[in-house]
Specification:
This protein is an all-alpha fold. The protein has one domain. The chain is built from six helices and no strands. Helix 3 packs across helix 5. The chain is elongated.
């Protein structure tokens, strides 16, 4: 074969490699978009289902509106279990943001902005010690870094003292 023909084949080969890399990059981008959409959808559905269950459960609805001083040990346990569900959902969004699967504003866009102010409210601040043991370090630090309250005295409430596990 002539040198000129080899040069042409090499150029064609290089062009094919470049086109293949562009195609692979495009496919990766499409897969990332699809994964992000799936994550948004799954988290949105889970969050909506949780809120829907809360809205349609009369006992939970009343419990949410109860003052901490009016809650008994059973109320606190039920409230803590429900908040654990929300913590799992919030942690899922937070982890996906950290991993770059979801954009930085996903917590707010998906309705989990409340975690920024979670420790501001007496009921949630009082059960946080029970929940914090069951979430990952990163999410725990995220919630605790956003403390925006004076220390809330929880000892006057009838909160059960579990061994660190809920449910």
């Amino acid at each position: 074969m002539s040198d000129q023909r080899i040069d042409v084949l090499e150029i064609v080969g290089i062009i094919m490699v470049v086109l293949s890399l562009i195609f692979v990059g495009y496919e990766i981008r499409q897969n990332t978009i699809a994964a992000r959409a799936t994550a948004y959808q799954a988290i949105g559905i889970a969050g909506a289902a949780t809120l829907d269950s809360w809205a349609h459960d009369e006992q939970l609805w009343r419990l949410q509106r109860k003052k901490p001083e009016d809650m008994n040990a059973d109320d606190w346990e039920r409230f803590a279990l429900k908040m654990k569900v929300f913590a799992r959902l919030g942690e899922t969004v937070h982890l996906q943001v950290e991993q770059g699967l979801l954009p930085p504003d996903a917590m707010e866009r998906l309705g989990y902005r409340g975690w920024v102010e979670f420790l501001k409210y007496p009921k949630t601040a009082c059960i946080w010690p029970l929940i914090r043991l069951e979430v990952g370090t990163s999410f725990r630090e995220f919630v605790e870094a956003n403390r925006s309250f004076e220390e809330i005295v929880c000892s006057s409430f009838d909160i059960p003292r579990w061994d660190g596990t809920i449910g």
